[in-house]
Amino acid sequence: MNKVKAIVLRAAGINCDQETVEALELAGAQAARLHINSIIKDPSALDDAQILVFPGGFSYGDDVAAGKILANQVMHHLGDAVRGFIDAGKLVIGICNGFQVLVKTGILPGFSESDGSSSVTITYNDSAKFEDRWVYLEPAADNCVFITPGRRLYLPIAHGEGKVVTKTPESLDKLLEEGHAAFRYVDSAGGQGGFPVNPNGSMESIAALTDTTGRVLGLMPHPERFIRRTQHPFWTRMPENMEADGMTIFNNAVEYVSTNF
Amino acid sequence: MKHWRYEIFSRTGFADVTGRDVLHEIKELGIDTVKKVESSRVFLIDADFEDQFARRVAAELLVDPVCENYYIGRRPLPDTGGAKSLIEVHLKSGVTDPVAESVTMGITDMGCKPAMVRTARKYVFYGDLTDEQLRFIARRALANDCIEDVIYGLEAEPPSPHTPEYKLEHKTVPLLELDDEGLTRLSGDMDLFLDLREMKTIQSYFRDKGREPSDVELETLAQTWSEHCVHKTLKSAVTFSYDGKTVEYDNLLKETVFGATQELNKDWCISVFEDNAGVVEFDETDAVCFKVETHNHPSALDPYGGAATGIGGVIRDPMGTGLGAKPVANTDVFCFGMPDIAIDDVPAGVLHPKRIAKGVVSGVRDYGNRMGIPTVNGAVYFDPRYMANPLVFCGNLGLIPNDKCFKNQQPGDLVVVVGGRTGCDGIHGATFSSGQMTHEHENIFSHAVQIGNAIVEKKTLDTLLQARDKNLYTSITDCGAGGLSSAVGEMGEKLGVEVNLEKVPLKYSGLNYTEIWISEAQERMVIAVKPEKLDEIMEIFASEDVEATVIGRFTDTKRLTLKYEDTQVGELDMEFLHDGVPKYSRQASWNTPKLSEPDIAAAGDYTDTVKKIFSCYNVASKEWIIRQYDHEVQGGSVVKPLCGVATDGPSDAAVIRPKPGTQKGVALSVGLNPMYGDIDPYHMALSAIDEAVRNLVCVGGRSDRIALLDNFCWGNCRKPEIFGSLIRAAQACKDGAMAYSAPFISGKDSLNNEFKMADGTEVNIPATLLISAISLVDNIEKCVTMDFKKPGSLIYVLGLTKNELGGSHYYYINGELGANVPQVDLELAPKLAAAAADAISAKLVRSAHDCSEGGLAIAVAEMAFAGELGAEISLDGLAVSDDCDTAAKKLFSESNSRYVFEVEPDKSSEFEALMAGLPLANIGTVTDNSLVNITAGGKTAVSGDIMEFKQAWQKPLAW
Fold first, then answer.
1. How much is the pLDDT for B432?
2. Scanning every residue of chain A, which has its alpha carbon at the shortest distance from the alpha carbon of B20?
3. How many Å apart are CA B393 and CA B378, to the nearest integer?
4. CATH code (residue B921)
5. Fewest Cβ atoms closer than 10 Å to its Cβ: which of B155, B722, B838, B866?
6. What class of enzyme is it (chain A) (predicted)?
7. Stretch B337-357: mean pLDDT, rounded?
8. B751: helix, coil or strand?
9. Residue A44 is part of a domain; what is its CATH number?
10. What was the pLDDT predicted at B444?
11. Cα gap B433→B435, rounded to integer Å
12. Confidence of residue B434 (pLDDT cuts 50, 70, 90)
């Protein structure tokens, strides 16, 4: 088959695009960085790719709310293109700011309140501060193609608005019952807890969401920042053959595309 | 046109994070009658849309429907719960409002372009407040007078957004006939900060020309000749009397700091002291460049904005070096007043140190994080004398292709300004920062504070790198201090340049040609473009919504020509502009103070002393700051600022891998110790260099590829004894650089950090030399960190511990300064650093930590708690000088050039062999428990639990 192709979206303020490309290439994909203006001009640029990445950063300065302006732009100019991409069985991943964009477009979790308004949002950390720290993640969804079931990951977060909240308790139930919670924040032994185990106060320790297809993933932690051993915060204490957890996400994506396309 | 007003506030059941923070700050101000604060975001939108669309704008764009509600119009005070008063904070007219720009874009995406968007913040207070208290809260906690207006109550109107149109009025300034007094007065009236000799030089130039100068010509000279831009103090000739001897310098900088660089003449230095940053070799294809700047005065007035533009500005230095570097790492170092001072003891016109600290940290955080550049290294230092003159050092490391390290602008090339628009912000920044601060400063120089917008800079960077790689421009520099006047003036120095000032894109109308020319508005770069490449480069900028405008042309006239529309408003000879500033002869003196060692009674057990030192602000953990900075973006971090089992140990230095596909890295470190300067600035400076070197070596940096940067922040250098202390430090810079064979590659100074209080008292900052250092790491896999790794390992100390408690933290907690300041053995120190680097490179060492603030006891305890292991140590075998004869001296002396290593037993003989002939001692072992036990002469000197030490260290700055 042909090489797996990924598009990493660029826009004003996105700043994790290059390392995301590096991660995808390490996983065996061919990855191109494309500016949103050029995709809006020619949405067929997406046709050739099987993975679309909304990377981390501060799109449009996170003005109004994190990811909001870019989400608005995507909805009004690329809504059909992105929905078409997902409907074609392809993969979409949003990391950090990209996750915020996917939630604020409504692509994640993919359902809304009865009045049409959003059920889920990502808002300010309980600490009210931007925080850079490493967290453990326990897979919680069993149908998400990006996830290796049972494999706990250690990855960094770096955000000020990462708290996943729902508008109503019913929406939270629905998230959990329908398997939208893709990862939960846990401690090194797998237990849930308060700060800093759950670094932002997310409801039910939710760190990541997936849609009903399992082919769209949004997560606050940055898998592209742990693709080499020397990125681990205490790699100097760890065995030399240690695997880089972040790669599992990208490897799973590339493997899925290789098998299904 | 309709005027829409939206108020957006938290929905019941969802936290109002901002309101909660404000309430906390009000309590900190000593007001406890407020029970609750409710915050709202306010949007004022002028647009032609109808009710239904207006509601969509709120619901779909402005509001987070999950956790917020909105109100269209002016929301009355809630009639329940005791809401008593409200205020709104609006930006002053003309101040950059990035959120408004984004909202404009968002509404346009929805299908209707608004005519104007403004934003504000509204606060409702529950509880009784007098008008006076309300104003106090507004001023101290909510608004910054420099950039914001506060309106009180429901009836008050927000400030008008409109600025008047500008009609050209060409102004000349009568100068030729002025006497000395008149010249001095003119300099003062125009805020030129030029002294009489400089004014007379200008007068004589224009007498030769036979005409009066225009306002813009005088302003251009004032900017270009400012201390900030030309460093006239450091470049002056000096007669220096030092302890009765006299030394003459013809050019201080050339004969000290730069002199060492010239003598060392390293072939790996590509471009030093000539561009916006110093450039050194990295590998076969790329070089790295490094620059550290200060942004002190603006940060004193507006901590958030001042610091944000400080980091924004220094990022533009590598962007404007050679043909442009990609920024890959930030560093930051702050000096503040004591954060626990009572608010009533803070003088008029000065912000509380804690507010400054919080604002500065937030400013660097928001700008650095938004730029996507990891902030990897830094330091914070507290001293009461920084209260009115806080120091904010921001640094940036860039990666630049080897074939893009030099500029090559030619006559005929177009002058193109790229990035942000020009506004009134930052006018007179260069000259203002060269003067003394006073209690009235914040009123007079409010316009000297620039306002930043990181996303504009990020977009500009993204496009410039594409244009660079396609060779579409011939030269680039940043608009920093002095604005276009400095940037364009420097680029045209050897050629000549003509600028049409009316072409410069403006944020709003009303700027006159002088304001356009000297504005320090942020996020602007100037490039030189060949006319035939213009279309191609403009297309790149346009494709990513970056503004770029041709504003002039380089010529071969050797003259700077300024035009507005068709009128020539200024013309200066480049030679006079750049070389006309009169050379100074200054007097300086230094008399080593007569100090003595205190007599502190020996204690049997020093465990509590160790805890007290850990809790000193200058030793305490800076985790509160570090975690607010993204230190991992770009994926290059190898040694992060925090390390160890719980990722909370203090790394000695940072290591980053600046590009994919390499095993090579760059280590970054700092050295700073103002406390030693109170005893002897020479040894302070050598200590700073030694500390920076130790830090680099401890993480795996090479000891033979170290490049240094200097930042001199001093008090009023017109005072001979203050200037004298700077000269002693500069002499040490030369001696240290030569000894370590480590050239200075760039530097910067900020002199005259003096504050005049309302009663006339003048407070000078302590002599502050920041040494920032970088080194190559050949193989990042060989880097080490400072946390103990394995029980049973041997603990070694390399280097000699001496009777050097002067300026130590041990003396500090006992209220003493002392006399025996740590010195550097210039023969031995480089050998120790080289041996340490060799041992790490040979993989003989599991952990390494430099011995610095607090001394050996602190270093070992830090290694233990970071590794969550214990240590069993005896001081008896320590390599010491003869007079280092007490437990206190061995535990707490801050002698330089010392390294603590963890070595596994099977590597110890090889390790010891490598260290043969050097002062080295095995002082103990790493243990499998949580106790640090240190004995001297068989008796316990320290015995404490690592978690207690860690707690003492983490508590003071856990804000």
1. 57
2. A128
3. 9
4. 3.90.650.10
5. B155
6. ligase
7. 90
8. coil
9. 3.40.50.880
10. 46
11. 6
12. low
**Mean pLDDT score across all residues of chain B:** 93
- Distance from the first to the final alpha carbon of chain B: 47
| CB neighbour list of residue B760: distance below 8 Å, 6 or more residues apart | none
The angle that helices B98-110 and A68-87 make with each other, rounded to 10 degrees, is: 40
Residue B898 lies in a domain: yes
Q: Which value, in Å, is the radius of gyration of the alpha carbons in chain A?
A: 17
Region of B484 on the Ramachandran plot (φ > 0 left; ψ -120 to 50 alpha; else beta): alpha
DSSP state of A27: T
Annotated binding-site residue numbers of B? 291, 293, 316-317, 450, 478, 710, 747, 750
- If you average pLDDT over residues B258-282, what whole number do you get? 96
For range B188-207, the mean pLDDT: 93
CATH number at residue B85: 3.30.1280.10
Residue type, B875: L
Distance CA B857, CA B607 (A): 9
| Residue B826 pLDDT exceeds 70 | yes
pLDDT at residue B6 is higher than 70: yes
B230 confidence band (pLDDT: 50, 70, 90): confident
How many structural domains are present in chain A? Answer: 1
Dihedral sign, Cα of residue B458, residue B327, residue B452, residue B407: negative
Provide the annotated active-site residues of A: 96, 222, 224
pLDDT of residue B469: 98
Of A246, A214, A223, residue with least CA distance to A144: A214
pLDDT of residue B144: 76
**Pairing, β B665-671 against β B768-777:** antiparallel
Number of domains chain B is built from: 2
Rounded to whole angstroms, what are the CA distances from B111 to A116, B48, B105, B108, B873? Answer: 20, 11, 10, 5, 72
Flag whether residue A38 sits within 8 Å of chain B, measured between CB atoms: yes
Mean pLDDT on B933-939: 95
Q: How far is CA A2 from the centre of its chain?
A: 25
Whether B630 contacts chain A with CB within 8 A: yes
| Residue of chain A whose alpha carbon sits nearest to that of B97 | A63
Is B192 part of a structural domain of the chain? no
Residue pointed to by tokens 């004003």: A12
Q: Which domain holds residue A195?
A: 5-260
Range of weakest confidence among B299-308, B328-337, B525-534: B299-308
Expressed in angstroms, the distance from the first to the final Cα of chain A is 8
CA–CA separation, B241 and B462 (whole Å)? 52
B455 touches chain A (CB under 8 A): yes
Contact B311, B363 (CB under 8 A): yes
Q: Which of B132-141, B264-273, B685-694 has the lowest mean pLDDT?
A: B132-141
Mutation for B interface: A64, A154, A161, most B CBs within 10 A:
A64
Q: Residues B585-614: pLDDT tens digits?
A: 899 999 999 999 999 999 999 999 999 999
**Residue B47's domain spans which residues?**
2-152
Last residue of a domain, one of B109, B129, B152: B152
**Contact criterion met (CB < 8 Å) for B781 and A230:** yes
Cα(A229)–Cα(A122) distance, integer angstroms: 30
Residue B443 confidence (pLDDT) above 50: no
Choose, from B295, B428, B441, B809, the residue flagged as catalytic: B295
pLDDT of residue B353: 95
Determine the average pLDDT of the residues in B898-918. Answer: 98
**Which residue, chain included where needed, has tokens 């001394």?**
B855
Please identify among residues 657-716 of chain B the ones whose CB lies closer than 8 Å to any CB of chain A: 657, 660
Residue B891 counted as domain residue: yes
Q: What is the pLDDT of residue A1?
A: 53
Question: Is B202 part of any domain?
Answer: no
Cis status of the peptide bond prior to B660, with omega within 30 of 0: no
The tally of CA atoms less than 13 A away on the side-chain side of residue B80 is: 0
Under-70 pLDDT residues of chain A: 1
- pLDDT at residue number B231: 80
